[in-house]
Amino acid sequence: MAHDAPEDGWKHSGVRVIPGDSLDENTAQTPGMNRAAAINLARVGAQKIWAGTVHIHANAKTGAHHHGELESVIYVVRGQARMRWGESLEFTAEAGPGDFIYVPPFVPHQEINASTDEDLECVLVRSDSEAVVVNLDIEPAEKPEAVAWVDPIHKEPG
Questions:
Q1: E strand or H helix at 37, and its extent?
Q2: How many angstroms separate the CA atoms of 7 and 73, rounded?
């Protein structure tokens, strides 16, 4: 499906480059984390995605929450991420530099910096430009069950 070019011939309404040193920190913050928006409705007119960075301080973690209907993708740039998820946060997996994490809609989860002395740096992309965070009152499981990556290529261990 072809679209007619806007009056500016796409000059200002086409591709945008957001310099890394101009991210917007006027976004929802969590203690121990610093989020900065690169792509959203206010900055570039994005209708269906939000993208930015999150720096999670050493030994910091979120409370249990989900993001409603949104899908989230986290790309680990530096450090070690630990994700807990499930009705009692009973499952866990870790990701390091170069790894991607996918969080489906409505999944109760908790993001954790697995390091006690190194910051965790990630790029975060969500499937809507509006932030949706539903905080949950979940008592975490005492011993989370580690979950290995399983897909058609990676079979269940054992």
A1: strand 33-39
A2: 34
Task: Please tell me the total count of domains within the chain.
Answer: 1
Alpha-carbon distance of 50 to 65, in angstroms, equals: 18
Place of tokens 């008592």: 139
CATH code: domain of residue 73: 2.60.120.10
Indicate whether 27 belongs to any domain: no
- Which residues, 6 or more positions from 88, have their beta carbon under 8 angstroms from its beta carbon? 138, 139, 140, 141
pTM of the predicted structure, to 2 decimals: 0.82
The closest of 72, 56, 148, 143 to 109, measured between CA atoms, is 72
User: Hey, how many other C-beta atoms are within 10 angstroms of the C-beta on 44?
Assistant: 17
In tens, the pLDDT along 40-55 reads: 888 888 899 999 999 9
